[in-house]
Amino acid sequence: MSLHGSPPPAPHNQGAPLFRRPVRPARTVAAAAAALAAAGALTATATAPAAAHAQAHARARHVLLLSVDGLHQSDLAWYIDRHPDSPLARLVGGGVEYTHARTTVPSDSFPGMVGQLTGGDPGTTGVYYDDTYDAALLPAGTTACAGAKPGAEVDLTEDLDKNKDSLDAGQGLAGLPGSILKMTGDAASLIDPSKLPVDPKTCKPLYPHGYLKVNTVFDVARKAGLRTAWSDKHVAYDILNGPSGNGIQDLFAPEINSQAIGYPAGKDWTKDNAATEQYDGYKVRAVLNEIDGYDHGRTHQVGTPAVFGMNFQSVSTAQKLPSSDGLTGGYQAKGVPGPLLAKNLAFVDQQVGAFLAELHKQHLDRSTTVILSAKHGQSPTDPKALTRIDDGALLDGLNAAWKAAHPGAGDLVAHAVDDDAMLLWLTDRSKAATGFAKAYLLAQSGTGNGIDGAAKPFTAGGLRTLYAGAEAARYFHVRPGDSRVPDLFGITRYGVVYTGGKSKIAEHGGAHADDLDVPLVVSGAATPQGVRVGDSVRTTQIAPTILRLLGLNSQSLDAVRIDHTRALPLH
């Protein structure tokens, strides 16, 4: 497959591949679920073919997990309705589609992906966003730990790279981007330890995998002697290795926020949608190599992993960018993809087709389960609802008000992350301080701008609900004073995006339906075909489902035991 061309088409009726086009209407299990909920069972009401029943009781040897960041369930349905013979349609028709699946809150890449691979929510995993704060850790660079003041940023972005401007994160490969598949599968080796927070217990830098409070699917699979691989957008996805630090044998993580080679200076791979597709193409090639039984760079023949996969970024940038490559980004109307997004849905469809074709070519389609979901959605999907608000001005005002009321005090805000939600960590975590911040923010009104760039008023700081102090701790099911939980967590009014400019028309991180309602499809080996589940499920249920498909004990996952996370109903 050329990285810039179309992948090979998926096979049609060659040896009866398991991934089949959907038969409409799909069988629904909603009614059966109500009757069987007390027993914890979920059974399809229609009679499945005998072959499908046999597959449902078989065990998968491989699970391929795909996250299409930003993708909504409504986007998937929209595309399949218009392309009923597409690879995505065959994937849905060859398994179980959960039409009411939700991701984590906050709906960010890190808690979303961590949730899928641990079974835990942020309060359990300790991972709330890709850039957070921990009141118990010491700042990066601390060497004299005795008596050092705790409180540190925990940055899991490109800033951890040895060289964040390079696609190889600082490995020093010649011939980039064409040589990127030569990038090491040891992503942690490309993290600059001087940029990591310091653990006061050891006085040593704390790597992302050590920051995670619970183990991962990769941890469990490795302990069972199975091969593992993953591909993502930052080397900080070392976090998915789990506390062992070695859960993933081959972690391919080219830096998405590096300078996009061949594009204007200052543009990373997310600033031009064609660049994002090119970037995703490198990870697609890595996964195809792994399907063929090689490592991601096709250097060593190691066998097809038992657990592997990647994330796609191109849909996300198509939703965020106002325009790119001569096409309008985002949505034309509520839930109706515009031309750039429609093009990217087709792009992802082609890549899924390439995976299905390669699985069939390697005679792995009958032993592989493909799981398709998304780390997060994107909001708003109604362009008329967009209200862009400069959060910098809000936070500057809060700090100024605090210092005016408390002469001699410093800034109240220690750290902030605001996309379409508001997460604040304060230097003073007292009830008085969190209450002060809440009252101030909810009293703010001003003028932002809409989809057309015209002025648009806002009130209450753009917030619908603001949890402060103990309220925020309860929201995330942790004790008050937990070192990682935000001191304030704000759910915005629908359509609000915190940004100082006009370069974004959507974001994620919040708790709106557009942030949370993602697709979830489990298809192929060990699944029935053509089943649609209408009951509410969570993407955290993916983790125990993967282990169950592989014949492993889902209770081996710490978060599954803590959060009582159940595997997805498949039969």
Automatic annotation (TrEMBL):
SUPFAM superfamilies named in the record: Alkaline phosphatase-like (SSF53649)
GO molecular function, one term: hydrolase activity
Gene3D superfamilies reported in the protein's UniProt record: Alkaline Phosphatase, subunit A (3.40.720.10)
Pfam families listed in its UniProt record: Phosphodiest
InterPro entries per the UniProt record, alphabetical: Alkaline_phosphatase_core_sf, Phosphodiest/P_Trfase
Protein name: Alkaline phosphatase family protein
